[in-house]
Design a protein that fits this description.
Mean pLDDT: 84
Order of helices and strands: HEEEEEEEEEEE
Radius of gyration: 58 Å
Strand order of the largest sheet: 8-9-10-11
Shape: elongated
Number of strands: 11
CATH class of the domain at 122-186: Mainly Beta
CATH architecture of the domain at 122-186: Roll
Largest sheet: 4 strands, antiparallel
Structural class: alpha+beta
Length: 189
């Protein structure tokens, strides 16, 4: 039974192929007959296609006339037109009146009674460190090659008073000035 079905399918396939070939020949043959012609040389010509001919010269140009071939890279063209600035013009910054000059403060120290003392002298010694116990520290200073050891509350050169001695700085007061007028001198390196 399988062999009978197989031959039947084979016969049906052959019939379909024959129908397909006949349909293709009927549809395509008229187009082939119109396009095929025999040229004078005896070779069949298919369609109306002709090969274009190209030459290096331009047949449309008159002799002696040169045509521009595009942009010359060695010359500059005209500059481009500037684009308009569409932003609004900024408002100018307001002008302020000039700052008033500060009133100079006279140099010196103002006393509670309104009188002034001249500015205190400059402390020029270098603070090297401290010695002694915490309850009575002694400051060590250098003036040129000379080293001075001065306890708290004593004077140096009859001008400076050692008010406080700390590990990183010393507070210096001045003879003839109030106790609030001081200068802190850091340890020198």
């Amino acid at each position: 039974m399988a062999a009978n079905a197989n031959t039947r399918q084979l016969a049906l396939l052959a019939v379909l192929l024959v129908v397909l070939v006949v349909a293709v020949v009927v549809r395509v043959r008229p187009a082939l007959l119109q396009g095929v012609g025999v040229a004078q040389g005896g070779a069949p010509r298919v369609g109306r296609y002709t090969v274009p001919s190209f030459s290096w010269t331009d047949e449309t140009a008159t002799p002696g006339e040169e045509r521009p071939v595009g942009r010359n890279i060695f010359t500059f063209g005209p500059p481009p037109t500037p684009t308009p600035d569409l932003r609004p013009t900024p408002t100018p910054a307001p002008t302020l009146p000039p700052r008033p000059r500060p009133t100079p403060t006279p140099a010196g120290v103002l006393l509670p009674d309104g009188s002034r003392l001249p500015p205190p002298p400059r402390f020029t010694l270098s603070y090297l460190g401290w010695l002694g116990p915490d309850r009575l520290p002694i400051g060590v200073f250098r003036q040129g090659e000379e080293v001075l050891a001065v306890p708290r509350g004593e004077t140096i050169d009859k001008v400076f008073i050692v008010r406080e001695v700390g590990p990183l700085e010393v507070t210096i007061g001045y003879v003839g000035y109030p106790e609030s007028v001081t200068t802190k001198v850091p340890i020198s390196r």
